[in-house]
């Protein structure tokens, strides 16, 4: 096995503020992790070599801290990040101990590089300092020019974290001002890691120029410095950077950076949350390029065609001035597993990001679109019939609907008052108004089930027996009356089948009786 010759690196210190870090610790390749996913994994986080003190979350001297400008949304979790590049401690670095720098696109990393990401969740909405450790993930650059990932789940006492071999969902109780709520946290499996860390994205996602070209305050020194400048000073880049070029390098902007344009904030978020898949050669389910490095005019985002339209007429990736036909917005806003994006390990949506996306889309030139009507009730199963109404926030909008699941037009049925639906149907409704683009269709499906007594009945042993047509598994209250005003409870019955028998054991005590059945929710 041959070894590359040492590379002479000269980093010229600039006259200016101090560097965030001045030294780079010795780092064994892979730390204590195996060289490939086929190796034996440490069963505890404390065995990985990532932390000098695992209970205190004190990183090993091999780990270099970093922050990304725009993080991947992870259900409001707080994340801490480090990485380790092999370093034998010699004065001269070899290529196997450095990162080939690229001002754009993705960086590549030598085998044995380990990325560590730690997750915590605030468990009290009124006191964000109350946090729970959830998991720590390791992503390892292996000897096969690929990566593997593992997840360690923290124990309740924070003494250590245990290796997970499969995915896991856990309900976590969050204290709110009014009580509590439950948040479901998803711990990814090793195969889940490779869903996003793909060859087309060069496996490593956040560690790149456009995400690290910003300031970070380093805990070990208390110094705030540009991260590229600090990494360059540590000799991590080959070739070394000319620090005067750093301000010219592209960088993302945070959602909260109100000095940046809506366009830059929205595109930065899309890059961080979508570009791992949505790029040339990536996802087959969309045609747009989410990478910030790609000019907006070439990204195929604004008015770009979609592969899956989610049953929205004239759907686009982003439809100018029309959030309702913007599939990007709809997927960001959804929690439906069949619709939401990103689709993995997300049980909440990012309200701040959604608002920025709404503001950006609505700022784009174009005729504004009406919001869709609301169908009340919004579908369901009903007995014998249901009264429907259509609602819209704009009193000037005209509402039209169809009963056959076709898209309404200006010639469709006009809504003017609540109406009764007596047979099963799928309703589509749209809003129309002069000077506005018509809304997307609201859709609701209704199952209208008949419930009735089968004609006839019979006495047997002093009991009156009759049959009811209902729904198997539903509960029915059986009541009787002699005047249709005062009703006497007889029994509660769970239907064993759609057609079932009801019995009145006291029928012989009355000259006649009326009966009714009430289906329970």
Report on this model:
- The chain is mainly beta.
- The protein folds into 4 domains: 45-248, no CATH class; 262-363, no CATH class; 374-449, Immunoglobulin-like (Sandwich), CATH 2.60.40; 452-519, Immunoglobulin-like (Sandwich), CATH 2.60.40.
- Helix content is 10%, strand content 29%.
- It has helices at 190-196, 209-212, 227-233, 262-274, 327-333, 351-363, and strands at residues 51-53, 58-59, 64-66, 78-84, 99-100, 114-122, 131-141, 147-154, 161-164, 168-176, 179-187, 215-217, 224-226, 237-238, 374-376, 380-383, 386-391, 398-402, 413-414, 419-421, 425-432, 442-449, 452-453, 458-460, 463-469, 475-481, 488-494, 499-504, 514-519.
- It has a 6-stranded antiparallel beta sheet, with helices on one face.
- Strand 1 and strand 2 form a beta hairpin.
- The longest helix has 13 residues, at 262-274.
- It is elongated.
- The N and C termini lie far apart (73 Å).
- The model has no long low-confidence stretch (mean pLDDT 95).
Notable features of this structure?
521 residues; mainly beta; Immunoglobulin-like; 4 domains; six-stranded antiparallel sheet; five-stranded mixed sheet; 10% helix
Name the assembly state: single chain
What is the percent of helical residues? under 10%
Q: Kindly state the mean pLDDT as a whole number?
A: 95
Spatially, the strands of the biggest sheet line up as 3-4-6-7-8-9
Number of helical elements = 6
Total number of strands: 29
Main sheet makeup: 6 strands, antiparallel
Radius of gyration: 31 Å
Regions with little confidence, pLDDT below 50 for 5+ residues: none
Measured between the Cα atoms of the first and last residue, the distance is 73 Å
Number of domains: 4
Beta-strand percentage range: 25-35%
Category by helix and strand content: mainly beta
Which word captures the global form?
A: elongated
